[in-house]
Write a structure and sequence with these properties.
This protein has helices at about 5-10, 15-25, 30-35, 45-60, 80-95, 105-115, 145-155, 165-170, 180-195, 200-215, 255-270, 290-295, 315-320, 335-345, 355-360, 375-385, 390-400, 405-420; strands spanning about 25-30, 65-70, 75-80, 130-135, 155-165, 195-200, 220-225, 245, 275-280, 305-310, 325-330, 350, 365-370. It is of the alpha/beta class. The strands form three sheets. Strands 3-2-1-4-5-6-7 form a seven-stranded mixed sheet, sandwiched between helices.
Length: about 425
């Protein structure tokens, strides 16, 4: 199969971007994930990806993009174009902090309004069978194989889902109870129905390929890495006491516990006044009793470890931009969007030594074993110093790194879709 072969080799000569933008297939983009998250004030990484694809596709190929969703109450259909665009715009404003009405009762009122105005309309495509692409960018609903079979029949479309990782199957210990069985059903829908699959990294492609082979499917896997989603800051970060930032849901897989133990050891060794702050950006997740015990009941950490949740995008961006480094000691990742977000803002990254995170870091970021507590402590102390050889070396590598854009990423996907047989 063509799991790791560039699509230009798999299909012959690649189409020019211009032709792919104008002459490619109709794309029916599923927005079920964003619609289901209307009550959430802040986005997850997958939310950001779906939003970035939606807005960029509507800019790059507006005449060929249609929007659809499965309503939270269960039925599927096309979305009213104007209402869907308004929903995308209002959601982006809410994430950015520009819309200050997203609290309390107003959030429920906005959700009710969206569920009415965005009620999917049942639709049966009149296009030639196979001419359309049904693009599904999250795992939402994929366990319902019969639903997607019905959708593809009505749309007369080929199915192209986006698989972000295989973590629930590779590391079920990090998920909620029952998560492995549910995700196995989702991947079964992908392997049974997809005409091609988008993945965010070579590492994810390598993990998905055996499932496709086991299902007897030889279909293209196209690596479509992610791009930064934050707008560049308009001012330089304010100078002040050094701090480090970690952006991730507080859950076992992200390995916050390592950093808390590192910070406690630094406080014991050097004193709290000599230790940089650690800012944890993200909501509290699941199966994390030990982590929460340290956050809530460890007096030594109170002065130097700060939790921030529910922040607007510009606040998260500014925290990353002002940090000595972004830290990501995860045990498993499919890509690592915070890595490219930080590098795009000029902030160094210290991350786990995982293939996906090395891909995201593009040869710039520094990587350590997620179990190497002393190694992380030495790196933090070095990066926190006013003159840091290790940090300066990463900043020097960063000068040759160029942040990808969603326009280039989406154009590449449009070219791939145009070349599908």
């Amino acid at each position: 199969m063509n799991s790791l072969v560039p699509h230009s080799q798999a299909f012959g000569a690649a189409s020019p971007f211009g032709r792919a933008l104008v002459d490619g297939p109709e794309i029916v983009l599923d927005l079920s994930r964003l619609l289901s998250r209307v009550l959430h004030p802040t986005p997850t990484g997958v939310d950001r990806v779906e939003m970035a694809y939606a807005r960029t596709l509507l800019q790059r190929a507006p005449d060929r993009v249609r929007l659809a969703a499965t309503h939270p109450l269960g039925w599927h259909g096309r979305l009213p174009a104007r209402a869907a665009r308004d929903f995308l715009d209002s959601t982006a404003r809410r994430w950015s902090g520009e819309d200050h009405r997203g609290t309390g009762w107003s959030r429920w009122r906005n959700a009710l309004d969206a569920s009415i105005r965005l009620a999917p309309v049942p639709y049966r495509s009149s296009s030639r069978a196979g001419r359309s692409i049904y693009l599904h960018l999250s795992s939402r609903g994929l366990e319902r194989a019969e639903l997607f079979e019905a959708i593809l029949r009505r749309e007369r479309a080929r199915f192209v889902p986006f698989v972000h990782d295989l973590i629930p199957l590779d590391h079920p210990e990090y998920g909620r109870p029952g998560g492995e069985a549910l995700y196995r059903r989702k991947i079964a829908t992908v392997t049974a129905l997809a005409s091609a699959v988008l993945v965010n990294s070579e590492a994810t492609a390598e993990r998905l390929a055996p499932y496709l082979r086991a299902a007897g499917r030889s279909i293209p896997l196209h690596v479509a890495p992610l791009a930064p989603t934050f707008a560049p800051p308009t001012t330089s970060p304010a100078s002040g006491a050094p701090y480090f930032v970690m952006v991730a849901t507080l859950e076992p897989r992200k390995n916050h516990l390592l950093l808390l133990n590192v910070w406690r050891r630094m406080i014991e060794t050097h004193g709290a006044e000599a230790v940089p702050r650690l800012v944890l950006v993200g909501r509290r997740g699941w199966e994390n009793e030990n982590l929460l015990d340290m956050l809530d009941r460890c007096p030594a950490l109170e002065a130097v470890v700060v939790e921030r949740n529910g922040l607007a995008d510009r606040q998260v961006r500014d925290l990353i931009a002002g940090a000595r480094a972004l830290l990501l000691p995860s045990f498993a990742e499919g890509f690592g969007l915070p890595v490219v977000e930080a590098l795009a803002l000029g902030t160094p990254v210290i991350a786990s030594d995982l293939p996906a995170l090395r891909e995201a870091g593009g040869g710039v970021s520094e990587h350590l074993d997620p179990m190497d507590g002393p190694g992380w402590m030495h790196a933090v102390l070095d990066y926190a110093a006013p003159t840091s050889p290790r940090r300066d070396a990463q900043l020097a590598r960063m000068r040759d790194w160029r942040a990808p854009t969603w326009r280039s990423r989406v154009d590449d996907v449009l070219e791939f879709l145009a070349a599908l047989p």
